[in-house]
DNA sequence: CTCAAATAATTCAACCAATAAACAAATCCG
DNA sequence: CGGATTTGTTTATTGGTTGAATTATTTGAG
């Protein structure tokens, strides 16, 4: 009921917290940063920072680089940066028409990227996962050939996930209650693609700490980021906006209800309405119906969560210029607070790689959030 | 961007955290609890718990009570309970037709309660607040006569609040940009009534850590509790569900849009639809239109946030038996995950006092969450 | 009635991590 | 070249938890 997260704090937790603090201060700095600057930024002592940095360097999380071009008097600073050859994250994705794997290092750079196109639906969950496991193994092999250590793996799926490793239902893949287990010899954290894509957007550093990412694909999902952390809901099923009711008398939806958002702004509905064959054709179509529906849904999200920024991803990203007016009109009409602080609409920065990149990012974020755990692992 | 809340942790923070941990462990225990049991529950050492408890007793946050009826051998335990005569919270409320104040002690008991009925709209913000300040002073006087120390005050208003002390807009009071400042000689934290009512429900201890409280009054608002903490949104304007779109072609709303929830399930709409004069008359009316609208909105909330419990307060609480079927039908239709884990609908435990009680509760929760801060204040 | 067993709470030395202040290193500038 | 300046390290101190030993208070068995 109360908030003091019922775990005791021992001294070692202090160190764990401060290790994370130092590491993240370095991570958030655009340029290499000195120990002294970290101390100033965090409020810790230079002595403490030095001690912490020693640990982080020994654990291959930070590296010292050439002193930055100097100015003024004084001993030159040694620059600190995230280690490009330390732990890395393995990001995996299975979607309707491809499977993919990538390796992202601590600095956020994609080091390897493997994609296999092909319809995953007829294959079945077992074979699809077996093939993905091979892909994961290959990605891992390449990463280790580079001197990277794969710290973990995460998998993005278009569906509902429970308990971190079971796909409860993925309608568009035809999956039901699929336990993922290990892939490429690593335990895998499974999550919804919209959630992970939201994380990858967060990783750009160009967004406020709270926003909602809307993923437009065959289905429509939302990834909710509050205060810099993904909000998953009680069972991990937050962000299911595809079946928000837009019009109680609207067209029937395969979910059994009527007038769901997907019936107006889902990929298939948009193609049908525009008489278009491919997503590319939509760029020239009239999307006002979809836009108004999407705007109504976004207004609901903003009214409920009071987020100031909405990121549109998936097929919406390239179509945003044509959707913006209709969405904006609904927001202005339906969001009471829009007068005081307008809602920002943005297109996603990453294209189809967003979810996979977010999956890898989730792994490295785990290391960045708990470096002490990583250091303990490496020592063992 | 990252999560390690950019403050360094010094050793004293460890103590502050553990003080809160011990205090809350005692608070969450139904019966008096021994130091040894606290140690077992928290994972701290008995020695540490003893030292922390000494501080908490010295600061009038805990008291030792008679050993509980024993069983078995061994030295009898000294029971610990929250102090009934330590800090107390002053809860204030201004609503359309009354103003009120109450004093709640650490244990959650209402010690004093003052209500003045009367339409607050013609009075204007200034006079209403001045009158409330007198009420607050009187409540505080009575509390201190009991030996209580008023730790702070919070005010519930039916409107949007910014920056903890300014009412941006309260449509039903006719307030616009009202800065509250001090009342009864205390700085006041202002918050939305639905938020505070939600907190009071959380305080019952009978709810899961995540739920949504829906307040049905003239307007409709929601208080969102996630993981035991109120979720306020970026600017504190979360939970504005009164203007969720139910039907794009529905009746026009005073907000400028059409088919808002308030036009179906707001107090005035329900009275009009039922041809009733008072809220009491609704108990016998057909509320299916309101119920379906409410159910549609609740389905949206659940799809978005994945909360498993919805608490209905305000005028909805007594009407829940008549609303339940319609709400449930919409939830079943529109919430994909309802098959796996059904959404619980509950009536609120507290009646009209909920918001005021929650305001007082917010104050004592502040003490419970940061006992170290309170101890520092008392020593000064 | 006395003594062993059991449980509660306190005392005390050890330890861990951060701090503050002094010190060493490396550069700039007059 | 020498003082000023900034970075980074060393060392003694301090705050806070731990673990073991100690004291306190009861039940129950002989």
Report on this structure.
With 380 residues, chain A is of the alpha/beta class. The first copy, chain A, is built from eleven helices and 16 strands. The mean pLDDT of chain A is 94. Chain A has helices at 11-28, 35-42, 46-58, 125-145, 193-202, 262-265, 267-274, 288-305, 316-334, 354-369, 371-379; strands at residues 62-65, 79-82, 87-95, 98-105, 110-117, 149-157, 160-162, 166-170, 175-179, 182-183, 186-192, 211-216, 220-226, 229-231, 309-314, 344-347. Chain A is globular. The first copy, chain A, has a six-stranded mixed beta sheet with strand order 5-4-3-6-11-10. In chain A, strands 14-13-12-15-16 form a five-stranded mixed beta sheet, sandwiched between helices. The longest helix of chain A is centred in the middle third of the chain and has 21 residues, at 125-145. In chain A, helix 1 (11-28) crosses helix 2 (35-42). Chain A has three domains: 11-82, Orthogonal Bundle (Arc Repressor Mutant, subunit A); 87-196 and 354-368, ATPase, nucleotide binding domain (Nucleotidyltransferase, domain 5), CATH 3.30.420.40; 207-347, ATPase, nucleotide binding domain (Nucleotidyltransferase, domain 5), CATH 3.30.420.40. Chain A is 38% helix and 24% strand. The interface between A and B is large, with 79 and 78 residues. The structure holds a DNA duplex (30 and 30 nucleotides). Chains A, B: It comes from Pseudosporangium ferrugineum.
């Amino acid at each position: 009921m109360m908030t003091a997260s019922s775990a005791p704090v021992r001294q070692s937790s202090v160190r764990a917290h401060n290790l994370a603090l130092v590491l993240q201060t370095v991570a958030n700095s655009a340029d290499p940063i000195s120990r002294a600057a970290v101390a100033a930024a965090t409020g810790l002592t230079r002595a403490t920072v030095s001690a912490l940095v020693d640990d982080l360097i020994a654990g291959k999380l930070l590296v010292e680089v050439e002193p930055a071009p100097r100015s003024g008097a004084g001993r030159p600073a040694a620059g600190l940066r995230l280690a490009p050859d330390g732990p890395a994250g393995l990001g995996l994705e299975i979607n309707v028409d491809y499977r993919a794997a990538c390796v992202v290092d601590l600095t956020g750079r994609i080091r390897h990227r493997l994609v296999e196109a092909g319809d995953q639906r007829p294959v079945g969950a077992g074979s699809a996962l077996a093939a993905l496991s091979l892909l994961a193994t290959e990605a891992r092999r390449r990463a280790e050939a580079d001197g990277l250590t794969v710290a973990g793996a995460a998998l993005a799926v278009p569906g509902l996930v429970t308990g971190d490793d079971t796909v409860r239902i993925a309608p568009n893949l035809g999956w039901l209650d699929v336990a993922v287990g290990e892939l490429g010899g690593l335990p895998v954290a499974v999550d919804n693609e919209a959630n992970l894509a939201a994380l990858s957007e967060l990783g750009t550093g160009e967004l406020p700490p709270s926003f909602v990412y809307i993923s437009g694909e065959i289905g429509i999902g939302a990834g909710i980021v509050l205060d810099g952390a993904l909000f998953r809901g009680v069972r991990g099923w937050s962000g299911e906006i595809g079946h928000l009711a837009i019009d109680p008398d609207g067209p029937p939806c395969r979910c059994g209800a009527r007038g769901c958002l997907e019936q107006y702004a889902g990929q298939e509905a948009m193609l049908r309405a525009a008489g278009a064959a491919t997503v590319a054709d939509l760029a020239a179509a009239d999307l006002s119906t979809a836009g108004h529906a999407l705007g109504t849904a976004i207004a609901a999200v903003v009214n409920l969560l009071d987020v100031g920024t909405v990121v549109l991803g998936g097929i919406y990203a390239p179509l945003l210029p044509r959707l913006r007016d209709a969405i904006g009109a609904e927001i202005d009409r339906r969001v009471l607070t829009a007068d005081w602080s307008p809602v920002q609409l943005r297109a996603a920065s990453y294209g189809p790689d967003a979810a996979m990149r977010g999956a890898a990012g989730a792994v490295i974020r785990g290391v960045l959030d708990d470096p002490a755990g990583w250091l303990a692992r490496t020592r063992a």
